[in-house]
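INSTRUCTION: Work out how this chain folds

Fields: amino acid sequence; protein C-alpha cells

Chain under study, with its fold:
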Amino acid sequence: MSRFFSTAYEYDSDTSSDESDLLSSSEEELLSSSAGEDNGNMSDDSMFNDDEGDESDSDADFDSDDSDSKPYGPDWFKKAEFRKGGASSGANKFLKGSSYADSDEESSEDEGKKVVKSAKDKLLDEMQAVFDKIETAEMSEDWITILNEFDLVTRLLVRAQQQNMGTPNIFIKVVAQVEDLVASGATEIQKKDVARAFNTAKQRVRKVARENEDALAQFRENPAAFDREASAAAPELGGPGSGTPEKQDINAQFAANKSVNLASLAASTDATFFTSLQIVIESRGKKSVNPLELIKILEDQVAATTKPYEKIVGLLTLIPIRFETANNLAYQPLDQWAAAFDNYAELLKVLQDNFATYRVSELASFNDNIEQEPEADPDTGIKTILGSLFAFVERLDDEWTKSLLNIDPHSSDYLIRLKDEQKIYNIILQTQLYLEKTLPADKKETMLGRVFVKRLDHVYYKSEKLNVIIETNAWKSALAADSSAQSEYIPVNGADAVTGEYITTLVNSLSDILMKQDDSFLRTRAILYRVFFTALNGEFEAAKEMLLSSKVQSNISKSNSSLQVLFNRVVVQLGLAAFKTCMIEECHQVLNELLASAHLKEILGQQPLQRINSNVENREDQCIPYHQHINMDLIDVVFMTCSLLIEIPQMTAFYSGIRVKRQPYSQKSIRRVLEHHDKSAFQGPPETSRDFVLYAAKAMQKGDWAASIEYLKSIKSWNLLPNREVVMVDLIERIKVESMKCYFYTYKRFHSKFSVKQLADDFALDASKVAESLDAVITEYEINCKFDDDKATLTVDSNDEITKLEEVASRLNKEYKMTKERLFPSRRR
C-alpha cells in the first residue's frame, strides 16, 4: 500500500529505502520536486535522503515529543509552506532548519537598516546609472539605447539645476563619453532606426558640448578630478563621516524612521547659521518632514542674520521651499504666496544694496561648500552666487494666474486677487533692470527673452489708458528702489513720461528683440502679442499685414495649446478691429471660419478650468483668466450684424428674381437664424441680443431702416466697444444704404421709374449716395435699368422680369412636385 493513503504514518528513516518500491511514479515526481525546491533550505541533509549521516542530522533537528514536528498523513510530501499548520507549525520549523532561521534573522536585520538618501545623492546615482548603461551599450553599438540614456541625463541636469546643484561632474563625464563615441564614428549601419538614432545623438551631443565647452575642456585636461563627486558616494546616514554632529543626528533619526525635531536641532546652542541651513537642505523632500517647519526655521535664521551673504543664501533656499507647499495643491496658498513675494523683494533689495560685492546669476559656478563664499572676481572684486532670480518671478506669476483660474470670477475675492498684478509687474520690471546691469553683453538679449515675454503677457491685452497707469506705477516703484534705474532697451525719462506712444514703442521694441531669438516659441508668441495689441488699438490693416507676413498661420496647428489659443484670440481681435472701422466684408471674412466652430469658448481658452480633464497635462495653458476674456456676446453680435448687412440684400435680390451668386453661410449666420425663426410656431418679442439682430434683419427686408436701427441700438453689447459712437454712426449709414437696396430689389418689378430724390428723402441719404449705390448693384447683377443724364431718375426695363404671381406659382409648383415624389416614390419614371 502506498504511503500516500496512510492516515497515521510514522516516519522512520530505516524504512524509507525499504519501501521505496511501493511509491508510484507520480509520487516519485512529487518527491523529487519537493526535494529540489527545498534544497535551498535543507541543503544535502534532506529528510528524503537515504544516507545514514542525514538520518542522524534529521533526528537531532526535531523533538520526538512534538507531534506537530513530524510529517504524517497525506501532507507528508508537500512543501513546507503548504503543509497543514502554515508557517507557524512545528513541521515548517523542522523543515526550515537552523540555517533558514539564521538567514531569516539576517534578512530582518537588513530590513531594519534603511538607507535614506538625499535628493542630490539620488540624482547623482541616476546619472551614474546612465553612464554605466551607455558604457554597456557601447560594446554592441546600440545607438537607440545611447540616445535614450543621453536624453535622460539631460533631463536629470534640469532637475539638478532646479535644486541649485549646478552641473554635476558625472554629467560632464557622460557628455564626454557620448562625444567620444560619436567622434569615433559608427560601423556601417544597416537599420534605418539605428542610423537615425546615431544622427540624432550626434546633433544633440554637439549642442550640449557647445553649452558646456569650458567644463569639457577641464575634463579633457584632468579626467581624474571629475571622478570625485560631492555627495556622489555619501556614507550611510548616521554613520561615521556623515557631516556635522547635528547632521549625523538628523540622519540617524531619519534612518530609524523616527520623527525629527528640526526646530530643536536648528535652535541648539551649537548650531550656527550654516549648520541650520544645512539641516534644512538635507531635510527637504523627506516624508517625515513638514515643509512649514523648515520655513519657520529659515525665517528665524534669515531674520537673525545681518551678513549679506548669509541673508542671500538663506533667501535663495527659503523661497523654493515656500513654492513646494503648493506641489499637491491647485495653487499656492495666498499667505505663502505673499510671504514668497516679500522674501523675493527682500532678496532683490539686499542685492541692490550690495551690488558692488554680491550678485546672483545663472552663469555662476556651483559652490560645493555653502559655508565658504564664492571667490571674488580678480578684476571687479564681485562674488557671484549661483541662482536664477527670474525663475522666482516666473513662479510667482504662474501661481498668481493659477489662483485666478480657480477663484470664482464673479466674486469679490477675484477682484482683490487681481490687484496683485501691479505688484507682479513692478517686480518684473525691477528684475529686468537688475539683469540688464549684471548680465554679460553677449548673452544679455538671449537671457532677457523670458523677462520680455512676461512683460508682454501683462501688456498686450490691455487698453492704452490702463497700460499707461500700470507702467507709470511700475517705474515709480523701480525708481524708488534705485534712483539711477534705467533700461537700455526702452528708456524713459521719469515715470511721468509714460504715454500712449511709449506703450506702443514698448510693445514694438520688445517684440522686435524676441523675433530675433532662436527659440521658435518666443518668436511666435512675440508676433501674436504684437498683432493682438495693434488690432486692439484699431489698426486693422497694419495688424493684418503683420500676421500675413509672419506666416504664423501655416504652422500654428503643430504648436502647443497655449499658442493655438493665442492665435485664435488674435483672429477674433482682428475681426473686431475691422468692425470698429466699419469694414463689414473684412470682418465677416475673418470671423466666418472661426465662428463656425461648435466649441468657440474652448478654442479661445475661455472655458472654466474645472471643465478640463484633470489628467490632461498643462491644463492652465488651455485657459486664460476671466479678466482677459473677449466678450462672447459681443463677438456673436458683431458677426451677426455683419451677416445681416451682407446676406439680407442678397437674399432679397434672389427672392426678387435677380440672378445672384449664392454665398455659403455658416451655422451662426443670419440666414440660418431667419430660417429657424420662420419655422417656429411662436414668435415673441425680442429678448436676447440675437433676437434684436433677427428683428432688425426682418425690418431691413421690408426696407424699414428706422425700425432696423432701433432694434440694433437696443443691444447693450455695443457699450463694450471703446469707440461706440463712431461705430454706430457708420453702422447707421450702412443700414440705410442696404435697406434702400432691399427696397429697390423688392419693388422694381412694380415700378417703371424711381426718383432718386424721393429715395434719398425716404432713407435719409444724400442723392449722390443713392445714385452711387444703385449704379453699383445694377452693374454687379446686370439689372436692366438705366439712369437719365443727370441721374435724377432711374428707368426700369421689366420685359424679362417675372411678376410676383408667376414667382409664387413657380414656387408652389416646385413644392408640389417634391411632395408628390416623397409621398409616392413608386410612381417615379
Observations:
- Residues 1-70, 84-112, 230-260 have pLDDT under 50 and may be disordered.
- The longest strand covers residues 358-361.
- Strands lie at 358-361, 383-386, 753-755, 785-787, 793-796.
- Residues 119-227 form one domain.
